[in-house]
Design brief:
Nuclear Transport Factor 2, Chain: A; alpha+beta
Length: about 170
């Protein structure tokens, strides 16, 4: 099984996270809105994006690669400051590998989540998520920052872009 550092980089490459791992996580109360996101002021948009994120987490936590990849656009672009640019097929291969090598890995949102509208396109989601798995018989968790661009077409939402930085 890979070390936590290697595991964290792989998760970041395919799941859109950034920042430094910490154990234990700083917040266990779920996502809240920042003052800036509240000022952007669309509770319906925020609820829609958080619902899509919940669907993504459910698929991730079930290790259902097909259901998870249906949430990502086929033209997915993922930019990682240390890992470079990845596309849809690379992300799918990464998730498949992570699930095969970490049968108990889980993802959850923690801390503040910001949602901002993109006129005529969708929304930007900025937040923090925690990934936990067992390594060498001990719980191993990392908390990371992420930014995702959600595209909405005819009521259907998909992640089109991910930016991960600060590693």
């Amino acid at each position: 099984m890979p070390s936590f550092a290697v595991f964290s980089i792989l998760v970041c490459l395919v799941a859109g996270c950034g920042g430094r791992p910490i154990t234990p996580a700083a917040d266990t109360h779920g996502p809240t809105a920042s003052p800036a996101a509240e000022a952007a002021g669309d509770p319906v948009l925020r609820a829609a994006v958080l619902e899509q994120d919940r669907r993504m987490a459910d698929a991730y936590n079930a290790h259902d690669v097909d259901r998870l990849m249906a949430i990502f656009a086929s033209d997915l672009e993922f930019f990682h400051d240390t890992g470079g640019a990845l596309g849809f097929d690379q992300a799918k291969a990464g998730f498949t590998s992570v699930f095969a090598n970490n049968p108990d890995i889980r993802r959850e949102l923690v801390g503040t989540v910001e949602v901002f509208p993109i006129k005529g396109y969708g929304a930007i989601q900025i937040g923090t998520h925690r990934f936990c798995h067992t390594e060498r018989g001990k719980a191993d968790c990392g908390t990371f920052r992420f930014t995702q661009v959600w595209r909405e077409k005819a009521g259907s939402w998909q992640i089109a872009r991910v930016v991960s930085f600060g590693h």
